């Protein structure tokens, strides 16, 4: 009988490049190329019926706020592609794919692990980046897909999530959907995309979306106008907004649109502008999250924390994300911005003039 501690552990498999896990937050993963390791990993997952150290992300969230990814999935299982009841049921019904880093952006909150543009940028430093996927990369992705397909019973799958890289930049998501359609009707499956919004969906993609039970599009928007262009370089906000309008104009009744917003020291003061803009296109609830790289929220200087607190005194959404100020992290944050500004020919103080004086 299932322990029913966490729906992710019970019913989801995440393929992250060469690793397998139930979710992105759990710290322990297994290497797909090692069958024995995968078997032992699954046995370990089946034994979990309470908190383990590897699940500290959700544990910390629940200790602070009483809510976490785990509690939200447990309370709304169908939305996540999980069965309502887990008793005597160990079916994997939700799949996440992050199998390649093919991406056209070098966002400041990301890195070479998740982006081919970052890889090219770090190797050359050129501002004019043209990305081509070599045959070796294509072969690696093909092997990963083949391994994943051998482990998935698509007949049981009720939700497929596509991550990146940028999932709409290539046809891997279509390959996966068509593999599922060999044994399952697409009207039974929820398709979820986390996208940077820069790619217009193809006719083949749109046709598949119209057949699905539901399509959930989450567009990553960390700011408006030049703020977006800076944080998600070299993407352009106008291009992304045009694609958002294009998707809405498709009028696909089973499609919902929402925005993912990564809060960092540069955009936290402008959250109200983003929120007002987002409601022009969707009323879906979105949960902003704090970044955890060099732009993490322990780098917000105390004077800016005071200004943000004064501005958002009636809305604690982003205030709760701020961490205690850490001088060492702050110094690294400033150096990180200055380094990439020099390489990209930008100046963050000019892009964010209303807050630049809070930073020494």
Brief synopsis:
The chain is 39% helix and 12% strand. It has helices at residues 7-11, 35-47, 56-65, 69-75, 116-124, 135-151, 172-181, 203-211, 226-231, 237-249, 271-278, 302-311, 327-344, 348-351; strands spanning 12-16, 19-21, 30-31, 94-98, 159-162, 190-195, 214-220, 255-260, 262-263, 289-290.
Describe the structure.
The chain is an alpha/beta fold and about 350 residues long. The chain has 3 domains: about 1-90, no CATH class; about 95-260, Aldolase class I (TIM Barrel, Alpha-Beta Barrel), CATH 3.20.20.70; about 290-360, no CATH class. The chain has 14 helices and 10 strands. The chain has helices at about 5-10, 35-45, 55-65, 70-75, 115-125, 135-150, 170-180, 205-210, 225-230, 235-250, 270-280, 300-310, 325-345, 350, and strands at about 10-15, 20, 30, 95-100, 160, 190-195, 215-220, 255-260, 260-265, 290. Strand 2 and strand 3 (about 30) form a beta hairpin. The N and C termini lie far apart (about 60 Å).
Give descriptors for this structure:
alpha/beta; TIM Barrel; 3 domains; 360 residues; 39% helix; 8-stranded mixed β-sheet; single chain; 10 strands; globular; 14 helices; two-stranded parallel sheet
């Amino acid at each position: 009988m299932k322990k029913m501690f966490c729906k992710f552990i019970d019913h989801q498999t995440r393929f992250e490049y060469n690793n397998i896990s139930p979710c992105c937050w759990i710290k322990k993963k297994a290497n797909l190329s090692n069958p024995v390791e995968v078997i032992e990993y699954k046995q370990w997952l089946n034994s979990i019926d309470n908190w383990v150290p590897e699940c500290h992300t959700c544990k910390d969230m629940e200790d602070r706020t009483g809510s976490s990814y785990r509690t939200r999935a447990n309370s709304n299982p169908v939305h996540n592609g999980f069965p309502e009841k887990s008793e005597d049921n160990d079916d994997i019904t939700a799949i996440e794919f992050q199998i390649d880093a093919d991406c056209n952006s070098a966002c400041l909150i990301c890195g070479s692990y998740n982006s081919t543009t970052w890889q090219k940028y770090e190797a050359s430093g050129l501002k004019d980046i043209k990305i081509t996927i070599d045959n070796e990369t294509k072969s690696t992705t093909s092997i990963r897909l083949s391994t994943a397909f051998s482990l998935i019973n698509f007949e049981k799958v009720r939700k497929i999530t596509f991550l990146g890289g940028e999932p709409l930049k290539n046809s891997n998501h279509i390959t996966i959907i068509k593999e599922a359609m060999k044994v399952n009707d697409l009207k039974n499956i929820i398709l979820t995309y986390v996208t940077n919004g820069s790619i217009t969906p193809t006719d083949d993609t749109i046709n598949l979306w119209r057949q699905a039970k539901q399509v959930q599009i989450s567009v990553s928007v960390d700011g408006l106008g030049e703020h977006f262009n800076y944080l998600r370089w070299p993407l352009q906000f106008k291009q992304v907004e045009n694609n958002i309008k294009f998707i809405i104009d498709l009028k696909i009744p089973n499609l919902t649109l929402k925005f993912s917003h990564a809060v960092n020291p540069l955009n936290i003061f402008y959250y109200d502008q983003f929120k007002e803009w987002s409601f022009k296109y969707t009323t879906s609830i979105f949960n902003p999250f704090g970044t955890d790289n060099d732009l993490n929220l322990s780098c917000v200087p105390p004077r800016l924390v005071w200004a943000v607190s004064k501005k958002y005194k009636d809305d604690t959404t982003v205030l709760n994300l701020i961490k205690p100020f850490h001088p060492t992290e702050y110094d690294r944050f400033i150096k990180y911005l200055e380094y990439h500004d020099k390489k990209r020919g930008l100046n963050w103080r000019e892009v964010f003039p209303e807050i630049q004086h809070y930073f020494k």
